[in-house]
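This entry is listed as follows:

___
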Amino acid sequence: MLADEGAAVLLVTHNVTEAERSVDRLAILDRGRLIAEGTPGELKAGLADDLRLELVFEPGAPAPRPAGFVGRYLPNGSRAIAMVPADRAGMAVEWAEGLRRSGSVEEFSLTPVTLEDAYIEIVGRADGLTARESLDERAA
């Protein structure tokens, strides 16, 4: 309400979903350095040609190998996030549907990229790392 009346509100959070839903503009800090700022849409613009394919694996099933058209592929436990070119959406659904029919994937969803996807990409670039290396480094 205060922001709607013109007051500036500073929200500090590690919850990227919360930030995406709550702010008009945001800044990404990494190790005390400002590495990006703008609206959520501006920060996601670098991934505008991609879609986010989330796969949920059957319990105990290993992560399937990514299809050739998949860009960034981040398996993590019982889930994986795959970035796919928007013009390959049909192929992505066919691939995921085939994985579901084979029993290795329980469910999947294909959605626009999120601010979290952009965050991983931006922080990885700032560190000079790939998105996978960036996630591995933060987990350590």
Notes: The longest helix spans residues 89-102.
